[in-house]
Amino acid sequence: MNVQLPEKLYYSIGEVAQAFHVNTSLIRFWEKEFDSISPKKNKKGDRFFTPKDIENLKIIYYLVKEKGYTLEGAKVVLQTQKNLPKKVEIISRLELVKEELLKLKELLDD
User: Fewest C-beta in 10 Å: which of 13, 22, 33, 101?
Assistant: First the structure.
């Protein structure tokens, strides 16, 4: 769940979908299912996601795609576990550390 996005105020739905390696339709579907995702829309209807929306998407992605929760199960977990954002952030950081360590191991093996 290593999401690489540049520091910006708003992200297009295409950028978000590409960062999460999912279709834009899934992002739109999650937007309808979860109240915590509320992108801004321009007059044309284009969605623009804030960094807070991205954080919420990371949590939903973690629950649904990595942990295998159903959407209803993910909603329950989001309501009951208040420390979940910190947990997801720590897991994300640990994954980055793991990647770096594996790169170093490859260099040392060569």
Answer: 101
